[in-house]
Amino acid sequence: MATSPSGKVKFARRTLSGRLVSLPRDEGIDYDPELNSSFSGGRSDYMNYTVQIPPTPDNQPQPGPSESDGIPRTQYGSHNTRVISNRREDEETNGIGRSTSMMKPSNMSLVRCQTVDFDHNRWLFETTGTYGIGNAFWQPSDGEYVDEDDGVTRFDFMDKPWKPLTRKIKVPPGVMSPYRLLVVIRLVVLGLFLAWRVTNPNEEAMWLWGMSIVCEIWFAFSWLLDQMPKLNPINRAADLAALREKFETPSPYNPQGRSDLPGLDVFISTADPEKEPPLVTANTLLSILATEYPVEKLSVYISDDGAAMLTYEAMAEASAFAEVWVPFCRKHSIEPRNPDSYFNQKGDPTKNKKKPDFVKDRRWIKREYDEFKVRINALPDTIRRRSDGLNKKEARERRNAGGDTPVDSDPPVKATWMADWTNWPGTWANPAPDHSKGDHAGILQVLIKTPSFEPVEGMSGDHPYLDLTGVDLRLPMFVYVSREKRKGYDHNKKAGAMNALVRASAILSNGPFILNFDCDHYIYNSYAIREGMCYMLDRGGDRVCYVQFPQRFEGIDPSDRYANHNTVFFDGNMRALDGLQGPMYVGTGCLFRRYALYGFNPPRANEYYGLYGQNKKPAASASPDHMTVGASKKEMEMLPLTEAEVDAPKRFGNSKRFIDSISVAEYQGRPLADHPSVKNGRPPGALLIPRQPLDAPTVAEAVSVISCWYEDKTEWGNRVGWIYGSVTEDVVTGYRMHNRGWRSVYCVTKRDAFRGTAPINLTDRLHQVLRWATGSVEIFYSKNNAFLGTTRLKFLQRIAYLNVGIYPFTSIFLVVYCLLPALSLFSGFFIVQSLNIAFLSYLLVITITLMLLSLLEVKWSGIALEEWWRNEQFWVIGGTSAHLAAVLQGLLKVIAGIEISFTLTSKSAAEDEDDFFADLYEIKWTSLFIPPLAIITVNIVAIVVGFSKTVYSEIPQWSKFLGGVFFSFWVLAHMYPFCKGLMGRRGRVPTIVFVWVGLLAIVISLLWITISPPSTKTDSSNGNIDI
Hints:
The chain has 1027 residues and is α/β, with parallel strands linked by helices.
């Protein structure tokens, strides 16, 4: 036997801390207390071990050992010793038998240290041996795994630590500590300032002082509601490598390495092909079909609430184009996978593309996409010509069969015809009974069938232009759905359409998770869905009801004139809410847990008590046994839907197949039980069963659950699914989940997850804000007001939802405060009696703290100062127009019962091809322009009047004039984007308009001076200026 130069055979032991300690055989062993403990088996157990060193490639490069080398046959001591051997057939032919032994006492391993001179690198590269595995176990050459019954596997030697899928990243204390301190300082200063203002009234103009102090108190209250939920912002990060290792890596439970991820159903909602162009919807669909998620686990549904044949045929065209677009994206790792965005992006398309045929493939697919766009844009004319031809043919056949048509007979109905020469069951171009927008049959058509469980890889020659060898050609299942609509039924707008999709998808695919998109939002990051899944499947993920992604927008003007990006909300407020109970649901780009949408309570929740929720305790799980006859409606709504209640048709309807799918979706959505700390988990490998193909009874059942009568006398829209009763059903739905104790997560990815479009026209933008504010007013006057929330809602989360319902009412005080500078200049008085040191000091401290808070908020949220300023400007513009109209509409609904109608936001692109931002300069008059216009005009005229009064007075009081001008300038600076929007494109506003405005201001100022001449009274006692 070859030994070290010193003639010693060295051993080592691993201590409990993981450190290796050498143990020479021929020297006395000084036993460590760890070896004497009962944990290691004691000194006697250790002394009884006899360790023999068998020949291995590590210590015996020369041919096999012999008895003359002094190596006796292997002897093994006690029962807890484990012998593992494996022989290589190619070396047995040379007479070299390699066997290894490993001695394993109770919790201690003796590891031999390498001491001989041996070329390890050459042995590793010239053989299939691997250190850590090869010394005790030879990995099979074909890479397969050995069954547990056949002996040891490589997993016996791989003690991998458990990895979480996500982690929280707290904002550095160097940012948050000063931020919280400044909030406290500003709160104290505001309190002192308001107390000083109340105790120091302006006796000469009590009406002006009273209006100002009421507005200032409300602004302080509104600031407090907005600021308090921002005290604990956090960031999160997902580990995609850990997700792949847990769910898609070969293991004893998953020998072939198939995906163990849960199923996912993706919803796309659209309603009007005129305002939501089919080409935009088709690009959204293509980006979803090509996303990086297991094909057999992904299903896509589109809800066409207008039942338009144009949308249906556009989706059929997109499904055909997906057969070449999706494999192209997979082959070359295309990002983004929206064809329109991909071909319009700037930069070198060949960057990071390694395959030599990329340029050829891209050129061909670009031509195919151009032809695809031509076909989509030509669909309206194609459908019209086809329908006209078939209608004429049908009329001709009717005349030939029945002779002349009677004079008093009804004119023939002009139907809309499909490509197979059958009548379209949805809405016709010429509305007719049973074929109009609010009166048509339910439609469900599977455009792409269920994919096979096994990958279908392309082969050379399968396609005449693309080499798709080794590329998976399968496509996810895609279903077109248009729910039934009949006269006399309240179809509940978008919320009703989403609930119909929930039921139909539960019958067809029943993915435990649901991702919903507006038709103009597409997947920009093909791995974003996997990041969202990390939060759902991590430890504690069974308590997460949804994962909200931030909304990012394209096509916004570079200056973002109307704050369309809304980064202050998405990167500031929503990130802060993530540190509480979770962000709000904002309508699109949200990954839901299907089980939570069904109205169930979370498996675990806390209840918060005390003045500000400082005391918490685990919530008791309510059951029907605890229900009392006298329970209130609010208490009844908070009871969980237990297993005994699931079978009640009054909850979910009378579809037995749908009710049976609920427990399946709950089980499949559980996290992986791969760690003792994971509660309510499922075993690994439980989701490897192939999906059953669709059959006729299943599709018929799906059609029945989208009928207009299915929701009658059920809990849909009340406790189950999307909640009805508000134009902002998204906020209400998220609030109901948080109110039951669920948590939500905000997922901000390094590369934008999803992107969409936003209205850049001033009128469209104000109408969008009007709809949001109207929904908030509805929430304030409904049972969804956070004042009525349960104890499962955290205190600061409750404050955030209170702010959602209250913020529109700030518009009343904002309009008054924007007119105060003009009233001051007109009347000659100010909100305070004198500009003394106390007033100016308070004003200075409040302004400085606000600036510092804004800088720190920019620091932890990542927004830019310009974005913050644009948000402040549009807050004033929207507050004096859309928010004020929303408050009035809400009062009319509560008092007079007048229903609120909302206008669908147009997603159409600008028609001017020469100017991409042509829509920005288009002026569309609306009554929402009146309040801001009045404020701007009054302040401009007030400045001119104040200047004239000061100039014509015997003793000009310029300090009084400058004080009023400063606050008027503050108002006008916030209104600057509104003024630019009214001016339209630069140079299009005639100069005469500005001339007439100036002349009008001068005339009004002269008339005011004539009616109310300036006063010459001054009072400079005590160093104060009387204003």
